[in-house]
Each structure stands twice: as C-alpha cells, then as structure tokens.
Amino acid sequence: MRGDSCRCYSHPHPNPHPLGVNPRDEPSRQRVCLSIVISLLLAAAIQCAAASDTGVVYLSFAPVDADFINRLPQGNGIAGLSGNIVALGQFNDAAFSVSGTEEIGVIGPDGTNLPVHIDKNSMGVEFGRLVSARLAFPLQGDPLQEQGRSYRLVWGPGRGKTAVAADNWTVDPDATAMYRVFRWTADPATNADSQLASIEVIADSQAGYYSLWYLVPMALIFALLTIRKLHP
Amino acid sequence: MTSLIHSVAEALSPLASPFLSLVTAVVLIPAARQARSTRIALARLFIPVVLFMLAYHGLLFLPLAARWLKALESPVWVAILLVVLPAMHLPRNGDWRWFRLVPACFVALLAWGIWQGSRSVPPEAPRVIGILVRPGWLIAGVASVLVLIQPFLSLNLFRRAVHITALCVLAAGGFMLRQDYTDFRDMRARRTVRRDVMNLSETSPVMGRDGRLAYLPSAPCRFSPDGGYIQGCNMELSQRILQLNYRKIAGHDVAELGALEAVLAAFLSFTILSFLVARWCCGWLCPLSTMGDGLDWLRHRLGVTPIRAGPATHAAMLGSGGTLAGIGLAMSALYHHLDATGRAFGVRIPVFPFCKMCPSQQICPMINAGPAGYPPLPGTEWAFGFFRYGCLIVLALYVLCFAAARRLWCRFCPMGMISGLFNRGGSFMLRKDAKRCNGCGMCAEACPMNIGKVRDEMQESNVSTYDCVLCLRCVAVCPRDGCLALEHEGHEVTRSHFGTGT
After folding, report:
1. Does residue B441 form part of some domain?
2. Is residue B229's pLDDT more than 60?
C-alpha cells in the first residue's frame, strides 16, 4: 500500500470535473446519479445471472398454410407421428446453442417430455454447436381448440434427452389440417411470423447484403480512425 | 421468478452492446464534460442512453436487426460500460468514493456467484474442481477488483497486478474456472482424449448463436485443450474469413452464411475494442508478454545486459512477422482445395496453419497441464516439415526475443501489428507537454519497445506511436510534473508526477 502514490491519479492540477461542476455543491444530484448507476448495476447483474447456455421458451401455435408446407420436405410424414396433431417449425432463437440434439426437449402441458423429431438436413451448426434446427413433435390435443395449455421448449445440458435426429423428416402435403406451426415468446424479435427461420429469410432474400450489417459499422469505425489520424 | 429475471435481463440487454460503450466513450462522456452544470451533464449522459435503449428494443422487433444486435452482445461490454469507463473518467474526489460502490457490488456479486457455483456441485464430484462461476460475473468482478485496488498502488505495481491477474484468468482460466459442473466435467473428459493437433479445428465452442461468451476466458489461444476463451485473436478470425467458401455464400448456403456472420460479429466487436484500447492489451493483459516479462526479469536478475535492437532489427522483425502471417493466411485460403488426404496441390496443410506455428498454441497448454501439455510436434509430412521446424523456430524466437532483449517479440506479433493501427486516432493518446520536458531521456530508457519519439518530439503533443504498447513506464519514470500523460478521449487518465514514482 502506498498512500501517497495515489496522488498521481488525484493530481491537483486544474482538471475540470467531467460533469462540469463540483458535485460537493450539489449532493442531491450526486445521489440521483449514484442511484441511477447502482440501479443499472443491479439490473446488469441480473442480466449476467440470466446469461446461460440453458434456456426455455414458451410455445404458441397457429394453423399452417400451403405456402408453409411447400417450403418443407414433402413425403409421407414423420414416422411415429401419424395420427397426432403435429407441431412444426424451425427453432433458431438467438440464445439457442447446444452441443447436440440430446440437449433439446419439449415439455407438454402435463409436464411430460414429448418426443421431438429433428430434421437432420436442417441443422445449422456453428463452431460445433447446434444453433438452428427444424423440429416436429406431437401435441396433446389441439391447442387451437384448447387455449391456455402451455408447452415449453427447453435446451441445455440435462434439459432434454427426448429429441432424435430423423433422416426422413417429411410432411404430408395432404394432411395440412394435422399440422400446426409453433412460435415462441421468449424473444420479441422472433415473436412473429418470421420465426419460421430468420436464417432462411437471410438465405432467401437478403444473403447478399447481410454481411453489410457488420461491414458498414466496421467501415465507419475505420473512417473515424482515419479522420482522427489526419486531424488529431 | 425465472421469467421475471429473464424479462429484466432482456430489458437491459442494450448494456451489453458494444455500440453503447463506443458511443458513451466517444460522444456522451466528452459532451457531458463540457456541460456547465451537473443537471445538464447528467441529461447529456443519461437521456441518450435511455433513447439508445429504447431504439435498441425497437430494433429487436425487426428480425434481421435483432439477429445482428444479439450477435454482438457480450458481458465484456457491461463491465467496460459500468466499471472501466467510469473508473477512467470520473475524477478522484467525492464522486469517486460513491462510485466505488459499483465495483464493490460487482465483487460481492462475484463472490455470491462463486458460492452459488460451489453449492451446485454434486456430492460425488471430485474434491478439487476449481471455481464454478459464470463468465459475466467473472469479467465484471475481476475488473472491479482491479479498479478498487488501483488507488493504493503505484502505476508500476498496478500494472504488475493487472499482468498477474490476466495471466491467471486468461491463461489458466480454462482449467481453474468453469461455468458450471457440467462444463467442468466436459473439460476433464476432453483432457483424457489425446488430440491430433494438426487436425484439430477447435477444442470447444466459444460463442453461441447470439455471440455471448458461452465459456470462461482461457488462454489467448482457443486451441488450449481445456477450452474457454475470449474471441480476441484477430489472426484466428482472419484465417476463418479466408476459409469460408464464398461460392457457397453466393449460393446462400445457410451454414456458410452463419459462419460468416459469426466471424464478422467477432471482428466488429474486436474492432470496437481495439478503437477503445488500442495496444493497451499488449502492455497490460497479454499472457505471452507477461511470461516474456518473466524471462526479462530473470535476465535482469542474472545481470545480463539486454540487447538494444536497432532500426534494422526492428524492421526485420516487422517484416518477418508480416511474412509469417502472410504465409499462414495464404495457406488457410487453400482450405477448400484440400482433398481427402488433407493435401492441396500435393502439400499437406493443417486447418489453421498460422495457429500451428504460433507460440501461444504451444505454451498455453503447458500452463494447465505442465510440460506434459506441450502439444505433439507435427510430423514432417506436413508441408514437408515446414510446420515441424517452423513451430520450433518461432518458439525459440519468442524465448530469445524476451530473454535477450525487451519486448522485441512484440514487434513480430501480428496481433499487435493490427492493434497498433489504433494507437493514433483511437481513444487513447499519449500526450507530451514539450514545454515541461527537460530532455533527460528517462522515458526512452524505460521504454521496453525502445521508442525514441517520446523523448525526441518537441513540436507535436500527441506522441503515440504504432509500436507503443501503452505500458506507461515512460509516464512512471518521467521526473517532470505533467510532462507526459495518458488521455482517453481527451480526458487525462494519469500523468507523470515527480517524486511519487507515479
């Protein structure tokens, strides 16, 4: 400990207060400032606490239309699910990242784990982590008729164990009435029809431009850097 | 309760955006400093922040914008925004006493997180499992501890404290610090598998779909077998960029587009960080330079005079580093030409050619596992022995550069070369008041990078140079009050002060 050494940081030269005045003159303002900072801090702490590689989202369901069915691989339907009302959709929530299909599960309204069938050909993997997949699972009754029954999609180590990757993941175009498309409500960004797969939206319509979302800010930063180098 | 926490966390997610930290540092704080009253200053600070948060949440309703913003979020930015920036910009008066509550809260939260992690360990677990803590807690907590102890230490002591802390967290973190017990168990399982380093593409995932840190920080090299890492190596990212299949991207291949997006997100985040801190990381955080400083200390204890390399040697080091980086990057661009035997045009090439020669990939595994952790040497079948002998030569060069001279290696490091671009024009500036300079030359003597400009410059006040690692040894030894100072966005963070050893 060197008590005197801190003088270099609290040097006496006339360095103006960053907020323009001496806060000792306005203690109430100081307290307001402090309260805001602490509130932000505590809130940020909550955010840190929430960050995890496990997650849960609540599902809602809607009828499917022909356009939706036409975008999926077609065949005789998924083996083992015939006779049930089946929920379909591409899950790619921003927080979704698992090491394998065994870490994905769907919990029905009665708390039971539902078998989840994952289309092997739809799985998006980045740096070895599964981040996007097309899912299908049987519903307990028809959620369009029975409102208020909640389904949860869970992921993370030890959370699922009911999902299997299917080679022959197809939908039966003649049984449209038996299908429902699921949506999730954890993230407002994906709480829309576009949830079907934002990555597909990118791939289909804006892939050529999407890298600009990152390149333009980078270019702006380098432009700012150049300007400041030339005019320090 | 869980959903409430998630809702609050989601509401505050803009704090984890690098854009908010950048705007706060570059625009809001300088604007607040010009204010005539506290009320105006607070308004200039907080009203834009609130507007930013509202706009951020508005953008989240647009799927593509949401995807973009989420890919950039990281708890690192929460720590920078709430701890580091205020610590640099708040004056050390009454405000500082109150501000200390913020890092103190983060430290308390870190302790609570560690306690919670220890409680989650099942009884059948082995006795020694390190520390279980989430990355966000760790980063904010460690930064807070350093901010709290800084006023009690001289600049030199503080730098050493940061060096040692960073070495422990970054280099050994993957071994000692894990996110939870499952993560720890996975790390142990990975250690039992003998790895073929030349085919290794990666040891563990580091970024989830949303770009948040999914694992704890570990070695600066992600190829450390224990995993964990902050996406901070621009050479690895550069190789990834070159490995991408742009024909597939043009064909809108989903997987390839996702990989491109992840790399660009990491690059953008890295660019913003470089703008804010430039080569400060080289001088204060880099574990390789900390270990190199250990060699430097040993040489000093043995009484061996360091070699003061001249401009020709410096130019040769710079050229060699650039050439090696170029060869590594060119080889990585051949990734899509590799056949089933891993050969391109008859030459066997690893997935990450530059990384296979980098000393970090060789040294960092030994921090966790001792000498036995040294990765197996590549066989001579890899590019006709280029990698086998190349990695040994580069490792020898690293040891020689630190053992015989002071930070000669840092002129060779491609990562530092890129960060050096931000030394002039970025947020940090080394300022000299030539009127106070007596030309004693102590700054040049103290400089580990052998930079003479700080001593010689008598016209321009900005004495930042491309090579400077912002270690601030020159500021610490300068005998003239206020002659040298470090500024961040025009605000003086520290200055030379005669008699205190700064």
Report:
1. yes
2. no
